[in-house]
Amino acid sequence: MNRETLVRILDLARWAPSGDNTQPWRFEIVSDGRVVVHGFDTRDWCVYDLDGRASQMAVGALLETLRLAATLFGIRADGRRWPDDGDESHLRFVLDLTDDPAIVPDPLAAAIETRCVHRRALSTRPLEPEQRNRLEHALPSGYSLRWFASPADRWRVARLMFANAKTRLTCREAFEVHKSVIDWTASFSKQRIPERALGVGPVTARLMRWAMKDWRRVEFLNRYLMGTWLPRLQLDLLPGWRCAAHFVIVAPAPPVTVDNALAAGRAMQRVWLAAGLSGLQLQPEMTPIIFSRYVRERRRFSASVRTMTMAQSSARRFDRLFGEQQASRIVFLARCGIGEPSVARSIRLSVDELAWRGQAPQW
Protein backbone atom coordinates (compact mmCIF):
# COMPACT_ATOMS: atom_id res chain seq x y z
CA MET A 1 0.00 0.00 0.00
CA ASN A 2 1.38 3.40 -0.97
CA ARG A 3 0.25 7.03 -0.98
CA GLU A 4 -0.50 7.09 -4.70
CA THR A 5 -2.88 4.13 -4.39
CA LEU A 6 -4.58 5.68 -1.37
CA VAL A 7 -5.22 8.91 -3.28
CA ARG A 8 -6.60 6.93 -6.24
CA ILE A 9 -9.02 5.14 -3.90
CA LEU A 10 -10.15 8.46 -2.38
CA ASP A 11 -10.50 9.89 -5.88
CA LEU A 12 -13.09 7.19 -6.60
CA ALA A 13 -14.76 7.35 -3.18
CA ARG A 14 -15.52 11.07 -3.55
CA TRP A 15 -18.11 10.20 -6.26
CA ALA A 16 -20.49 8.89 -3.60
CA PRO A 17 -23.92 10.57 -3.66
CA SER A 18 -24.99 13.26 -1.19
CA GLY A 19 -28.05 15.45 -0.84
CA ASP A 20 -27.85 18.44 -3.19
CA ASN A 21 -24.19 17.51 -3.86
CA THR A 22 -23.12 18.86 -0.45
CA GLN A 23 -20.34 16.25 -0.02
CA PRO A 24 -20.47 16.37 3.81
CA TRP A 25 -17.10 14.72 4.33
CA ARG A 26 -13.42 15.52 4.47
CA PHE A 27 -10.37 13.24 4.23
CA GLU A 28 -7.46 13.32 6.67
CA ILE A 29 -4.57 11.20 5.38
CA VAL A 30 -2.68 10.01 8.46
CA SER A 31 -0.28 7.66 6.68
CA ASP A 32 -0.04 5.69 3.45
CA GLY A 33 -2.31 3.04 4.93
CA ARG A 34 -4.61 5.05 7.18
CA VAL A 35 -7.18 7.76 6.54
CA VAL A 36 -9.66 9.45 8.85
CA VAL A 37 -12.98 10.34 7.25
CA HIS A 38 -14.65 13.31 8.91
CA GLY A 39 -18.44 13.27 8.41
CA PHE A 40 -20.62 16.35 8.87
CA ASP A 41 -24.23 17.30 8.34
CA THR A 42 -26.25 20.25 7.13
CA ARG A 43 -28.77 20.50 9.97
CA ASP A 44 -27.92 24.17 10.56
CA TRP A 45 -29.39 25.28 7.25
CA CYS A 46 -31.13 22.42 5.42
CA VAL A 47 -34.76 21.59 6.17
CA TYR A 48 -34.23 18.11 4.68
CA ASP A 49 -31.53 17.29 7.24
CA LEU A 50 -32.76 18.64 10.58
CA ASP A 51 -31.28 15.79 12.64
CA GLY A 52 -28.39 14.93 10.32
CA ARG A 53 -29.85 11.60 9.15
CA ALA A 54 -29.78 12.50 5.44
CA SER A 55 -26.12 13.50 5.60
CA GLN A 56 -25.30 10.42 7.67
CA MET A 57 -26.80 8.27 4.91
CA ALA A 58 -24.50 10.05 2.47
CA VAL A 59 -21.49 9.36 4.71
CA GLY A 60 -22.52 5.69 4.84
CA ALA A 61 -22.60 5.67 1.03
CA LEU A 62 -19.13 7.23 0.97
CA LEU A 63 -17.70 4.58 3.30
CA GLU A 64 -19.18 1.80 1.18
CA THR A 65 -17.86 3.43 -2.00
CA LEU A 66 -14.40 3.67 -0.46
CA ARG A 67 -14.50 0.00 0.50
CA LEU A 68 -15.61 -1.01 -3.01
CA ALA A 69 -12.98 1.22 -4.65
CA ALA A 70 -10.25 -0.36 -2.53
CA THR A 71 -11.07 -3.82 -3.92
CA LEU A 72 -10.01 -2.64 -7.39
CA PHE A 73 -6.45 -2.41 -6.05
CA GLY A 74 -6.47 -5.61 -3.99
CA ILE A 75 -6.83 -3.54 -0.82
CA ARG A 76 -8.89 -4.35 2.25
CA ALA A 77 -10.44 -1.33 3.99
CA ASP A 78 -11.31 -1.89 7.65
CA GLY A 79 -12.87 0.94 9.62
CA ARG A 80 -14.22 1.95 12.97
CA ARG A 81 -16.13 4.97 14.21
CA TRP A 82 -14.73 7.09 17.01
CA PRO A 83 -17.08 7.89 19.89
CA ASP A 84 -18.85 11.11 19.00
CA ASP A 85 -19.02 12.47 22.57
CA GLY A 86 -22.66 13.29 22.02
CA ASP A 87 -21.92 15.51 19.00
CA GLU A 88 -23.44 13.76 16.00
CA SER A 89 -22.72 16.73 13.74
CA HIS A 90 -19.05 15.70 13.42
CA LEU A 91 -18.43 11.97 13.01
CA ARG A 92 -14.99 10.45 12.57
CA PHE A 93 -14.06 7.12 11.01
CA VAL A 94 -10.59 5.59 11.08
CA LEU A 95 -9.95 3.39 8.06
CA ASP A 96 -6.93 1.13 7.71
CA LEU A 97 -6.12 0.02 4.17
CA THR A 98 -3.92 -3.03 3.70
CA ASP A 99 -2.84 -5.23 0.81
CA ASP A 100 -4.71 -8.52 0.78
CA PRO A 101 -4.15 -11.12 -1.97
CA ALA A 102 -7.56 -12.62 -1.17
CA ILE A 103 -9.39 -9.43 -2.21
CA VAL A 104 -10.92 -9.49 -5.69
CA PRO A 105 -12.45 -6.47 -7.45
CA ASP A 106 -16.11 -6.05 -6.54
CA PRO A 107 -18.23 -5.72 -9.73
CA LEU A 108 -20.19 -2.83 -8.21
CA ALA A 109 -17.05 -0.69 -8.24
CA ALA A 110 -17.23 -0.45 -12.03
CA ALA A 111 -20.22 1.90 -11.77
CA ILE A 112 -18.81 4.32 -9.18
CA GLU A 113 -17.93 7.16 -11.55
CA THR A 114 -20.87 6.78 -13.95
CA ARG A 115 -23.59 6.57 -11.27
CA CYS A 116 -25.61 9.79 -11.26
CA VAL A 117 -29.10 11.23 -10.86
CA HIS A 118 -31.45 11.14 -13.86
CA ARG A 119 -34.38 13.57 -13.46
CA ARG A 120 -36.03 13.30 -16.88
CA ALA A 121 -38.59 10.87 -18.24
CA LEU A 122 -37.47 7.27 -18.74
CA SER A 123 -38.71 4.33 -20.76
CA THR A 124 -41.76 2.58 -19.34
CA ARG A 125 -40.52 -0.76 -20.67
CA PRO A 126 -40.79 -3.30 -17.83
CA LEU A 127 -37.57 -4.34 -16.12
CA GLU A 128 -36.09 -7.70 -16.96
CA PRO A 129 -36.04 -10.29 -14.14
CA GLU A 130 -32.24 -10.23 -14.07
CA GLN A 131 -32.28 -6.45 -13.60
CA ARG A 132 -34.55 -6.74 -10.58
CA ASN A 133 -32.51 -9.62 -9.21
CA ARG A 134 -29.25 -7.70 -9.46
CA LEU A 135 -30.66 -4.82 -7.41
CA GLU A 136 -32.18 -7.15 -4.83
CA HIS A 137 -29.01 -9.22 -4.45
CA ALA A 138 -26.94 -6.07 -3.91
CA LEU A 139 -28.72 -5.37 -0.63
CA PRO A 140 -27.02 -6.12 2.69
CA SER A 141 -28.57 -8.77 4.91
CA GLY A 142 -31.79 -7.68 6.59
CA TYR A 143 -32.80 -5.16 3.91
CA SER A 144 -35.47 -5.79 1.29
CA LEU A 145 -36.70 -4.20 -1.92
CA ARG A 146 -40.34 -3.59 -2.77
CA TRP A 147 -41.33 -2.77 -6.33
CA PHE A 148 -44.08 -0.51 -7.70
CA ALA A 149 -44.00 -1.27 -11.42
CA SER A 150 -47.55 -1.69 -12.72
CA PRO A 151 -49.15 1.31 -14.45
CA ALA A 152 -51.51 1.73 -11.50
CA ASP A 153 -48.66 1.61 -8.98
CA ARG A 154 -46.50 4.03 -10.94
CA TRP A 155 -49.41 6.45 -11.10
CA ARG A 156 -50.01 6.16 -7.36
CA VAL A 157 -46.36 6.97 -6.60
CA ALA A 158 -46.39 9.80 -9.17
CA ARG A 159 -49.43 11.32 -7.45
CA LEU A 160 -47.66 11.04 -4.09
CA MET A 161 -44.68 12.90 -5.52
CA PHE A 162 -46.95 15.53 -7.09
CA ALA A 163 -48.76 16.16 -3.79
CA ASN A 164 -45.57 16.20 -1.74
CA ALA A 165 -43.95 18.62 -4.18
CA LYS A 166 -46.55 21.25 -3.32
CA THR A 167 -45.33 21.12 0.28
CA ARG A 168 -41.75 21.38 -0.91
CA LEU A 169 -42.34 24.28 -3.30
CA THR A 170 -44.48 26.38 -0.96
CA CYS A 171 -42.30 25.92 2.12
CA ARG A 172 -40.25 29.02 2.95
CA GLU A 173 -37.60 26.89 4.71
CA ALA A 174 -37.22 24.70 1.60
CA PHE A 175 -37.03 27.79 -0.62
CA GLU A 176 -33.94 28.94 1.26
CA VAL A 177 -32.29 25.58 0.56
CA HIS A 178 -33.25 25.49 -3.12
CA LYS A 179 -32.00 29.04 -3.56
CA SER A 180 -28.54 28.07 -2.34
CA VAL A 181 -28.04 24.69 -4.01
CA ILE A 182 -28.88 25.36 -7.68
CA ASP A 183 -26.08 26.47 -9.98
CA TRP A 184 -28.03 28.49 -12.53
CA THR A 185 -27.14 28.24 -16.25
CA ALA A 186 -24.54 25.54 -15.50
CA SER A 187 -24.26 22.04 -16.98
CA PHE A 188 -21.77 20.86 -14.35
CA SER A 189 -21.23 21.94 -10.77
CA LYS A 190 -18.61 20.88 -8.23
CA GLN A 191 -20.67 21.70 -5.14
CA ARG A 192 -24.25 22.29 -6.25
CA ILE A 193 -26.90 21.03 -8.69
CA PRO A 194 -26.45 22.46 -12.19
CA GLU A 195 -29.58 23.98 -13.70
CA ARG A 196 -29.41 21.80 -16.81
CA ALA A 197 -29.57 18.67 -14.64
CA LEU A 198 -32.82 19.72 -12.95
CA GLY A 199 -35.05 18.08 -15.53
CA VAL A 200 -37.17 21.12 -16.44
CA GLY A 201 -37.56 22.88 -19.76
CA PRO A 202 -35.94 26.24 -20.55
CA VAL A 203 -39.14 28.25 -19.92
CA THR A 204 -39.66 26.68 -16.49
CA ALA A 205 -35.97 27.13 -15.67
CA ARG A 206 -36.10 30.84 -16.49
CA LEU A 207 -39.25 31.25 -14.39
CA MET A 208 -37.67 29.40 -11.47
CA ARG A 209 -34.49 31.46 -11.73
CA TRP A 210 -36.51 34.68 -11.63
CA ALA A 211 -38.72 33.53 -8.75
CA MET A 212 -35.90 32.26 -6.56
CA LYS A 213 -34.35 35.66 -6.24
CA ASP A 214 -37.00 36.62 -3.68
CA TRP A 215 -39.52 34.66 -1.60
CA ARG A 216 -42.15 37.33 -2.34
CA ARG A 217 -41.97 36.41 -6.03
CA VAL A 218 -42.59 32.76 -5.15
CA GLU A 219 -45.57 33.70 -3.00
CA PHE A 220 -47.00 35.84 -5.80
CA LEU A 221 -46.68 33.03 -8.35
CA ASN A 222 -48.14 30.46 -5.99
CA ARG A 223 -51.09 32.64 -4.99
CA TYR A 224 -52.13 34.14 -8.30
CA LEU A 225 -50.56 32.13 -11.13
CA MET A 226 -50.58 28.53 -9.83
CA GLY A 227 -46.81 28.75 -9.67
CA THR A 228 -46.20 25.19 -8.47
CA TRP A 229 -48.10 23.45 -11.26
CA LEU A 230 -45.52 23.65 -14.05
CA PRO A 231 -42.49 22.52 -12.01
CA ARG A 232 -44.53 19.81 -10.28
CA LEU A 233 -45.69 18.46 -13.64
CA GLN A 234 -42.16 18.46 -15.10
CA LEU A 235 -40.26 17.41 -11.98
CA ASP A 236 -42.67 15.02 -10.28
CA LEU A 237 -45.85 13.86 -11.99
CA LEU A 238 -44.65 13.14 -15.52
CA PRO A 239 -41.28 11.58 -14.55
CA GLY A 240 -43.10 9.62 -11.83
CA TRP A 241 -45.33 8.10 -14.47
CA ARG A 242 -42.68 7.82 -17.19
CA CYS A 243 -40.39 5.18 -15.75
CA ALA A 244 -40.14 1.41 -15.59
CA ALA A 245 -40.71 1.19 -11.85
CA HIS A 246 -40.43 2.81 -8.46
CA PHE A 247 -38.94 0.89 -5.57
CA VAL A 248 -38.33 1.32 -1.87
CA ILE A 249 -35.54 -0.04 0.30
CA VAL A 250 -36.97 -1.32 3.57
CA ALA A 251 -34.62 -1.49 6.57
CA PRO A 252 -34.83 -4.14 9.31
CA ALA A 253 -35.96 -1.43 11.77
CA PRO A 254 -36.76 2.30 11.69
CA PRO A 255 -33.53 4.32 11.20
CA VAL A 256 -33.40 6.11 14.55
CA THR A 257 -29.64 6.09 15.24
CA VAL A 258 -26.48 7.25 13.49
CA ASP A 259 -25.47 3.66 12.81
CA ASN A 260 -28.90 2.95 11.30
CA ALA A 261 -28.46 5.90 8.92
CA LEU A 262 -24.91 4.87 7.98
CA ALA A 263 -26.08 1.32 7.22
CA ALA A 264 -28.99 2.65 5.16
CA GLY A 265 -26.54 4.73 3.12
CA ARG A 266 -24.44 1.67 2.38
CA ALA A 267 -27.55 -0.20 1.21
CA MET A 268 -28.66 2.74 -0.94
CA GLN A 269 -25.29 3.03 -2.70
CA ARG A 270 -25.03 -0.69 -3.39
CA VAL A 271 -28.47 -0.75 -5.03
CA TRP A 272 -27.73 2.42 -7.00
CA LEU A 273 -24.47 0.97 -8.32
CA ALA A 274 -26.25 -2.28 -9.19
CA ALA A 275 -28.79 -0.26 -11.17
CA GLY A 276 -25.94 1.30 -13.13
CA LEU A 277 -24.47 -2.10 -13.93
CA SER A 278 -27.91 -3.18 -15.13
CA GLY A 279 -28.11 -0.31 -17.63
CA LEU A 280 -30.71 1.57 -15.58
CA GLN A 281 -30.96 5.27 -14.84
CA LEU A 282 -32.19 6.24 -11.36
CA GLN A 283 -33.65 9.22 -9.53
CA PRO A 284 -33.98 9.30 -5.73
CA GLU A 285 -37.36 10.45 -4.38
CA MET A 286 -36.42 11.19 -0.79
CA THR A 287 -38.55 14.18 0.23
CA PRO A 288 -41.72 12.14 1.00
CA ILE A 289 -39.67 9.89 3.30
CA ILE A 290 -38.10 12.83 5.11
CA PHE A 291 -41.27 14.87 5.56
CA SER A 292 -43.30 11.79 6.56
CA ARG A 293 -40.74 10.96 9.22
CA TYR A 294 -40.88 14.52 10.54
CA VAL A 295 -44.67 14.22 10.81
CA ARG A 296 -44.42 10.80 12.43
CA GLU A 297 -41.95 12.15 15.01
CA ARG A 298 -44.02 15.33 15.52
CA ARG A 299 -41.09 17.45 14.41
CA ARG A 300 -42.12 20.91 13.29
CA PHE A 301 -39.98 21.77 10.27
CA SER A 302 -41.80 24.89 9.08
CA ALA A 303 -43.20 27.99 10.75
CA SER A 304 -46.14 27.86 8.34
CA VAL A 305 -49.29 26.14 9.62
CA ARG A 306 -50.37 25.61 6.00
CA THR A 307 -47.12 23.87 5.15
CA MET A 308 -47.42 21.57 8.15
CA THR A 309 -51.03 20.75 7.25
CA MET A 310 -50.01 19.81 3.71
CA ALA A 311 -47.14 17.71 5.07
CA GLN A 312 -49.52 15.81 7.34
CA SER A 313 -51.82 15.11 4.40
CA SER A 314 -48.91 13.82 2.30
CA ALA A 315 -47.69 11.69 5.22
CA ARG A 316 -51.11 10.00 5.41
CA ARG A 317 -50.92 9.31 1.67
CA PHE A 318 -47.40 7.92 2.16
CA ASP A 319 -48.61 5.55 4.90
CA ARG A 320 -51.58 4.37 2.84
CA LEU A 321 -49.40 3.66 -0.17
CA PHE A 322 -46.64 1.76 1.63
CA GLY A 323 -48.49 0.50 4.68
CA GLU A 324 -48.17 2.00 8.15
CA GLN A 325 -46.11 -0.91 9.50
CA GLN A 326 -43.57 -0.67 6.70
CA ALA A 327 -43.56 3.08 6.10
CA SER A 328 -41.39 3.85 9.14
CA ARG A 329 -38.70 1.41 7.89
CA ILE A 330 -38.40 2.85 4.39
CA VAL A 331 -34.98 4.47 3.95
CA PHE A 332 -34.89 5.03 0.18
CA LEU A 333 -37.46 5.63 -2.56
CA ALA A 334 -36.47 5.93 -6.20
CA ARG A 335 -37.66 5.51 -9.75
CA CYS A 336 -35.65 3.76 -12.44
CA GLY A 337 -35.73 2.73 -16.08
CA ILE A 338 -33.85 2.76 -19.35
CA GLY A 339 -32.81 6.18 -20.61
CA GLU A 340 -30.02 8.12 -22.20
CA PRO A 341 -27.36 9.10 -19.65
CA SER A 342 -27.64 12.66 -18.38
CA VAL A 343 -25.33 15.06 -20.18
CA ALA A 344 -25.45 17.58 -17.34
CA ARG A 345 -24.60 16.42 -13.83
CA SER A 346 -23.13 17.34 -10.49
CA ILE A 347 -19.42 16.64 -10.32
CA ARG A 348 -17.22 16.74 -7.22
CA LEU A 349 -14.55 18.62 -5.35
CA SER A 350 -11.07 17.18 -5.86
CA VAL A 351 -9.34 15.04 -3.23
CA ASP A 352 -7.15 18.02 -2.37
CA GLU A 353 -10.18 20.29 -1.97
CA LEU A 354 -11.76 17.64 0.28
CA ALA A 355 -8.70 17.48 2.53
CA TRP A 356 -9.39 17.96 6.23
CA ARG A 357 -8.08 21.37 7.33
CA GLY A 358 -9.27 21.32 10.92
CA GLN A 359 -12.69 22.81 10.42
CA ALA A 360 -16.14 21.88 9.13
CA PRO A 361 -16.98 22.55 5.47
CA GLN A 362 -18.42 25.93 4.59
CA TRP A 363 -21.46 25.53 2.35
Q: Please, could you describe this protein's structure?
A:
With 363 residues, this protein is an alpha+beta fold. Helices cover 42% and strands 17% of the residues. The chain has helices spanning 3-13, 53-71, 129-137, 151-169, 172-181, 202-211, 215-224, 229-241, 258-277, 287-296, 305-322, 324-327; strands spanning 25-31, 34-40, 75-81, 90-99, 144-148, 182-183, 188-189, 193-194, 245-250, 281-284, 330-337, 345-346. The strands form 4 sheets. A 4-stranded antiparallel beta sheet has the order 1-2-4-3, with helices on one face. A hairpin with an 8-residue loop joins strand 3 (75-81) and strand 4. The longest helix is centred in the C-terminal third of the chain and has 20 residues, at 258-277. The mean pLDDT is 95.
Topology of helices and strands:
Elements: H1 3-13, E1 25-31, E2 34-40, H2 53-71, E3 75-81, E4 90-99, H3 129-137, E5 144-148, H4 151-169, H5 172-181, E6 182-183, E7 188-189, E8 193-194, H6 202-211, H7 215-224, H8 229-241, E9 245-250, H9 258-277, E10 281-284, H10 287-296, H11 305-322, H12 324-327, E11 330-337, E12 345-346
Parallel strand pairs: 6-8, 7-12
Antiparallel strand pairs: 1-2, 2-4, 3-4, 5-9, 9-11, 10-11
Helix pairs in contact: 1-2, 2-9, 3-9, 4-8, 4-11, 10-11
